[in-house]
């Protein structure tokens, strides 16, 4: 797989740790980012190649995404994982990889899509939230769900505290889900057809 990140990359790290075992049936061929993200250090540590394609170097979103796609495709991955990749990808990018493009999101979708899911859940007074791993479609966090896990929101919990607890569950679910895809226990074509 190729993993795309924007930030600290703790989900990436969980995948790198898992893939370090010969018993784990998936490998990370490269890590990409839209900025010189801190999380790229995890790739360096594991000797995994990385690339940065920053939108600020391009005239349009489309031109940026085309270069990002070229970098991804160079590695000929069977799966592309958005693990904290905080940009919306144009339809051409999504279509080129679909359904082998998945995203992990810190809420129980369809609740709280977008870039501020944890904040939005607390603001809405929700008592439960979680993680959704889904196939990426052309909308924002609207693609078919592959796996979800829920979590109670504790009274008085801050956004940071809740997000850290979500990420503990998220890392586990992502590692399990990618393995299930690699072992063909989950068929992304089928997931896309059903929804
Ligand atoms: C994760 O919780 C991921 O679900 C979220 O960013 C975090 C990245 O953490 N993504 C989104 O909110 C996308 N809408 P990490 O960099 O430590 O893996």
Automatic annotation (TrEMBL):
Q: Which reaction does it catalyse?
A: N(1)-(5-phospho-beta-D-ribosyl)glycinamide + (6R)-10-formyltetrahydrofolate = N(2)-formyl-N(1)-(5-phospho-beta-D-ribosyl)glycinamide + (6S)-5,6,7,8-tetrahydrofolate + H(+)
Q: What is its EC number?
A: 2.1.2.2
Q: Which GO terms describe its molecular function?
A: phosphoribosylglycinamide formyltransferase activity
Q: What class of enzyme is it?
A: transferase
Q: Which UniProt keywords apply?
A: Purine biosynthesis, Transferase
Annotated GO biological processes are: 'de novo' IMP biosynthetic process
Gene Ontology CC terms: cytosol
Statement: the UniProt record of this protein carries the keyword Transferase: yes
Q: Which family does it belong to?
A: Belongs to the GART family.
Q: What is this protein called?
A: phosphoribosylglycinamide formyltransferase 1
